[in-house]
Design brief:
Helices cover 36% and strands 19% of the residues. It has twelve helices and ten strands. Helix 3 packs antiparallel against helix 4, helix 6 packs antiparallel against helix 9 and helix 9 packs across helix 11. The longest helix has 28 residues.
């Protein structure tokens, strides 16, 4: 897993890292942990614990956790395991903090297209085997093992797992021919307030695409990218409108979350009042200069997220199945 730093910043920070063990990967008898972690609160400008982060949550909140998607080539690497186990840790911390108020914690998934909600529900309730579920939900090549526990967690505590994204047939057609190219049967799936992301978001999108997309196709690709954000925001806000006695944590690719210009902006457009964003990064060391690269605000784009969750690149393993 590679950290992507948009621009180096020279800002000296005084810090005291809040340390804790990272989560265990439980699919086999091998528990990987990072030997050090710390979470930077960009608003309070101080280091906090995961428990501190969870205390910021109230009924009706949207939480957005940016991730680096697990792939077939890296899902068993320690850093990928810790990265995804931390998603479950955040769900657990939110649930623990909100239990006294009888507030449920639910999960929104970028990987699931919203017309497939009944398929997700059938899997959660045991009506489909995992193999049947993955086939019927049109799961791609990302290893489901990196997401299984997160997907199943909400139902154990009265919450729900929501399918949030737009079917790929729609976004692919938009990327190919623009919004006007959509036929009526696909147009009816669109969110009601869909429009382009803001100008700075497009600047970052152009930088990220580089030479991968020809200039004449870039705007259509950005329309498709913005459609992902709008669809997820639309479905997430609808979920909380229909069941306001919950908190919704949405897991989406980090680019959709960084600097608030994508999914967080779209959530505001659809009426979300309280939004908390979290990003994870692996740091090569804990010197102040290196930490500045992650936690200092970008001179043009501002803070990366409300909470920056860092862990080291040194991992330990306990259990029968650890490499020897």
């Amino acid at each position: 897993m590679t950290n992507k730093i948009i621009a180096p910043l020279a800002l000296s920070l005084t810090f005291t890292c809040a340390l804790a063990g990272a989560a265990a990967h439980t699919s086999v008898d091998a528990k990987w942990t990072a030997d050090r972690e710390a979470i930077w609160d960009t608003r309070a400008k101080r280091w906090v614990t995961l428990e501190d982060v969870a205390q910021h949550s109230e009924r009706g909140d949207h939480w957005v956790l940016g991730e680096v998607h697990a792939t077939a080539s890296d899902w068993q690497e320690p850093e990928t395991i810790v990265h995804h186990d931390n998603q479950l840790r955040l769900l657990q911390a939110l649930q623990k903090n909100l239990a006294a108020s009888m507030t449920r914690v639910s999960l929104g998934m970028e990987f699931f297209n919203y017309p497939k909600q009944s398929v997700v529900d059938a899997y959660i309730t045991g009506q489909l085997t995992e193999a049947e579920f993955l086939q019927n939900v049109d799961w791609g090549s990302n290893p489901f093992g990196s997401y299984r526990e997160q997907v199943l967690f909400p139902a154990k505590n009265g919450g729900r797992t929501y399918a949030l994204n737009m079917p790929r047939a729609v976004t692919s057609q938009v990327a190919k021919g623009g919004p006007a190219s959509l036929p009526p049967e696909l147009r009816q799936l669109l969110p009601p307030l869909w429009d382009l992301g803001n100008d700075l978001y497009f600047v970052r999108f152009r930088e990220a695409m580089g030479s991968h997309v020809p200039e004449e196709k870039l705007l259509n690709y950005f329309w498709a990218h913005s459609l992902w954000d709008d669809t997820m925001a639309w479905r997430a806000t609808q979920a909380l409108l229909e069941s306001p006695d919950q908190v919704l944590l949405t897991i989406a690719g980090a680019f959709h979350v960084q600097f608030g210009g994508g999914l967080p902006d779209s959530l505001k457009k659809y009426g979300a009042k309280r939004i908390q964003t979290v990003l994870q990064y692996q740091t090569p060391d804990w010197t102040s200069g290196t930490l500045d690269l992650f936690v200092a605000p970008h001179p043009r784009y501002g803070a990366r997220a409300d909470f920056i969750w860092l862990h080291s690149g040194n991992f330990t393993c306990e259990g029968r199945d650890c490499p020897r």
